[in-house]
Design a protein that fits this description.
Mean pLDDT: 84
Shape: elongated
Number of strands: 5
Order of helices and strands: HHHEEHHEEE
Strand content: 15-25%
Number of helices: 5
Strand order of the largest sheet: 1-2-3-4-5
Low-confidence stretches: none
Distance between the termini: 81 Å
Largest sheet: 5 strands, mixed
Length: 155
């Protein structure tokens, strides 16, 4: 073996470099290139085509919530499998009535979609108020919203 390497130094060097380059190309092809082709959710959005939330459902939710005279604005944003609702209410609205606005979401969204999406609700006011913001979250496996801890003022 030593004689073969001594007699064929150039060919062995070229062969060794070729094998190293081939190894590097395989590593890049297997591990680095797939990272750039995936979306940021990976396979977590499987089945989302069967669970589309139509704009008519969102508009119905917004209009039903806005029927309350204490509500000034409703915003909606879908982030993957999370439905985000931001509701702006009057500072005079009490916290329990504000939390009941989440029931409208549960009424209007189909059971099939409630089992697929997590739903977040942020209830806030335009004015400064010690009772707001209120944040509620419903995991896809739960039946109702859970609201965060009470807001505390800092001095």
């Amino acid at each position: 073996m030593k004689n073969f390497i001594k007699n064929h130094k150039k060919q062995c060097l070229i062969g060794g470099i070729s094998i190293l380059i081939l190894f590097i190309i395989i590593i890049i092809w297997l591990f680095i290139i797939p990272v750039f082709s995936n979306n940021k959710y990976g396979d977590r959005l499987e089945g989302i085509e069967e669970h589309k939330i139509s704009s008519s459902v969102i508009n119905d939710i917004k209009s039903t919530i806005k029927e309350n005279k204490m509500v000034s604005d409703v915003e909606y944003h879908n982030e993957g499998r999370i439905l985000n609702f931001i509701i702006t209410v009057s500072a005079e609205m009490n916290k329990e009535d504000a939390k009941k606005l989440s029931d409208i979401l549960l009424e209007k969204i189909s059971d099939k979609n409630k089992e697929y999406y997590d739903i977040q609700i942020l209830i806030d006011t335009e004015e400064e108020n010690d009772n707001y913001p209120i944040v509620g979250y419903k995991h896809k496996t739960e039946d109702k919203f859970e609201f965060g801890s009470e807001v505390e003022t800092s001095e």
